[in-house]
Amino acid sequence: MSALDELTIPTQKKSDFYxxxxxxxxxxxxDKYDVYALVGQRGVGKTxxxxxxxxxxxxxxxxxxQNVLYIPFDANPLYQLQSNDQLRRAVNYYExxxxxxxxxxxxxxxxxxDDVHRIEHPNKSLEGWGEEVKSLLKEAExxxxxxxxxxxxxxxxxLKRVGFDADRYSVWPIFPEKFRDHIQSVFPKLExxxxxxxxxxxxxxxxxxxxxxxxxDPVQFFEALCELYDSVEADASRIRSQVAHYLAxxxxxxxxxxxxxxxxxxxxxxxxxxxxxxxxxxxxxxxGLDAVKNIADLERLCALVAADLETPFKxxxxxxxxxxDRRTLRExxxxxxxxxxxxxxxxxxxxxRPRSIRLYLRDTALVNAYTGHTPSEVLNDYQLESKLAHxxxxxxxxxxxxxxNFSAGYEFEDYDPPAEPTVEYWPGTEGEVDFVFExxxxxxxxxxxxxxxxxxxxxxxxxxxxxxxxxxxxxxxxGDTATLSEPVEVLEETPIVRIPYWFYLMLA
Length: 508
Description:
This protein is an alpha/beta fold.
């Protein structure tokens, strides 16, 4: 078995770490469940996150090192053959030779099964890992199994097959590094207490977006946005200067190149490797392929989306290209890519029979990889930058939707947040509202005016949506703020607030 100590661990902790380890809470998330799973793309940082968590617990004397067993199923193909026997032998050795050395040990134990999906055999009638996990949990008190996989369905399917109670496990998705994580990596001092941006101010309480949606009164929410901007205004130019570099790097490459402040420092093969990793995921890890005629079509769909970022796709066009019907597109092609967090559909808001759909890759580096651009080209092409900005804004809107509804679930006892975030678009007569998500059951329209001259039609579209649906507020995100009188401004006689693009990304 490999040791976690052999990994190169980033010095900075992703924002996901605090949700995972709960350093300010009463109990870490893995300790609340018998089985806790992290799912996400290859290279997104699942193993590193677990490593940071374990190291913190050992450093703070909460567990002895002997209480951790780490088994990487992706490290050696032999681990994937007769995997239950391999797992049992490893646990027996661990209990007999390592754990037995610790006397009067009442601390939690962690068995970490990394890349557990790699031992699946979809074409063979072999026993999965679920029964062995159930057995391991019965053999010791306060033992927890931590899993990593590519998709939630890979965890749910096996645990459901063996009759594992749903309330005994939890699955948490890990996404590519967001803009704020990139800023933290490049400018770590901006995360010091006196300079740290605290989005909780607009997530909970009287100043939160959920409260503004429920009360139909956005005044305190708008004031909180101004307060948050004031807290980082002194560093605005430094943060804004990193937008183009983040759009060129994308979340996973940004995470791999910790602290790199310029995308021009990327290796020539960085985009090529990113594309190869995705191809490997599609062929080895994609769940539920029964209705997909050709796995290569999934990569072709990603390439098609990367090549055309401007307009919604007609269902008929995609159906003809891949020779499948609309239902197969939605329930197989889009669903499979969504489960791997590679591509997310954005349907038309309030339309049960739309003819078109927007499709977004969830990492801007993938767009660059599929279109053949180099990092230098991305940094010097403003038209391309504006397209990538739309992709990143969608990804961060998905995160914002989740965080706001997660908070609303705590705020309101009568509100049950959706299991998965959704962000849609709305084609009005005045223009298109780029992103619409519901917070506490109320629609929030967000318009993106990244290019110079796009502010007025974007604002008109958001205003039309507010009037049509009687929404309590809207947000306009501005890319070009040089000509604006105020960076954050509530537009006169409207419930619309305009904020800078970089600031919007920081809030997600």
